[in-house]
Amino acid sequence: MIRYLKNIKYEHKMFLLFLVVHFFVWSLIGLVRVVLPTDSLEGIYWGSLHDFGTPKHPPLAGWITYLTYLPFKTDYSIYALSQAFIIIGLFYVYKIGKLFLNEVQAITAVILLEGCWVYTYITGYYGFNPDVILLLLLPVITYVFYQCMHNNRPSDWIKLGIFVGLAFLNKYQTGMIIIAMAVWAFIYKKETFKNKYFYLSVLIAFIIFLPHLLWLIRYEFFPFLYFDRELTSPAWHNHITAPLIFLVLQFSVIVGVLALFVLMKLVHKSPFKLQENYNKQDASFLLIMGLVPIVIHLLMGTIEGGAMRPRWGFEFWYLFSIMIFYFFPIEVTKKEFDFGLKCGYFAMVVTFIALGTLLAVEKNYRSRYPVAHIYTDLKQAWEAKTDKPMKYIGGYIEWTLPLTIYAPTHPYCILDTFGYKNPWIDEKDLQKTGILIFDRSKEEVIKQTFKSCPYLPEDYNVNPVEYKFKVENAFEQEREYTIYYYIVLGDDK
Fold first, then answer.
1. Which residues, 6 or more positions from 21, have their beta carbon under 8 angstroms from its beta carbon?
2. Residue 214, Cβ neighbours under 10 Å: how many?
3. What confidence tens digit (pLDDT) does each residue in 35-67 have?
4. Strands 412-413 and 392-395
5. Cα gap 184→179, rounded to integer Å
């Protein structure tokens, strides 16, 4: 190993060191939190259900999160998992970069992605979720697709089928990269659609996705209601404002990379001149693969008009730094490379300080939820009414999930199935055992009580009880929250 490190080029050594530093810096940032992000808590719980679907996504993220958390039972395992996926994704961005740029340009392009806060902020604020998996799978799919189009090796087609199948088993948005690939192939490689290996790849992807498809059919595709609820809006002006807001917030992801690239240009007096002798197919590959998914999001927002979540598009900017190096070339000598490396570390330090400070000073239940205190109080309230174990809890998911994961008895959490029968709850057992519901207001507690307990008569009287708890930041400053809870006692019959 030592002999190998001595023989590799300076730029490669610095690149490997940068990735190692990036991994440890951004996997440690999450430890400023008291509890895991909601997305990670959801993943652990979804994975513990051992099912082929969840209320929002296909099951892959839940399986991986749960299997990582299970043997260690430590939050750091999830943050390290997140950055492991991101580092592998960055390595494949580098492999893509080498297809269009020289070696040093490709390395520099990846280093400048440190200015894209999706690769840094996401671990501390969202932990591990389907978006993080896409940060790995999208570059892998893009790289393997390029190999399929240019070499037509059966092994590459098999790999493409496997990775596309896994991506679909992770998040439905994979369809957007499939559309981008289909558009490029239709324009430049129409013979692809007559290639037997193409259909082998499709078959492999379908087989991997099939268990989840059967699960969707069984439960009438109810997870799609989540997206329908998010996207649909009755207000006509949302069809204009939603995509515009989405587009503006996408710029927030790439502005850091753009700023670092412009800084390199200015410091080294490189002219801002568009590449003239570019390869049309290569240029189209980068533009279509990099921008078509964003365009599809904008079209969805225009048609549906709902409040589009900006982070739906964030993971699709993995080609941006390669694109700017390709279309606005800069000669990267050792001097320029060292400056680009310093820019990457500068972006890392600035973002680390900003996010670390935010997580330390905020008095937010999402990051500093006092699980032990709340569980003790609610358990005492439960035991004052019944001698049965507190097996089920329901209500606001960001308050119930931490208790499910961290509380010693790990009560079952009632997930929102949008009106459909909950596949993971034994309603007869729930009716026999009872449930504790807590939420943000009396009205929400009443609504959640009837959603969680559909067996209750319409005239059942729900009287929520007020409960207050305090959230303390790293500097012992407090913020008080008021919630309400109600206990539905079990049926002894």
1. 345, 348
2. 12
3. 999 999 999 999 999 999 999 899 999 999 999
4. parallel
5. 9
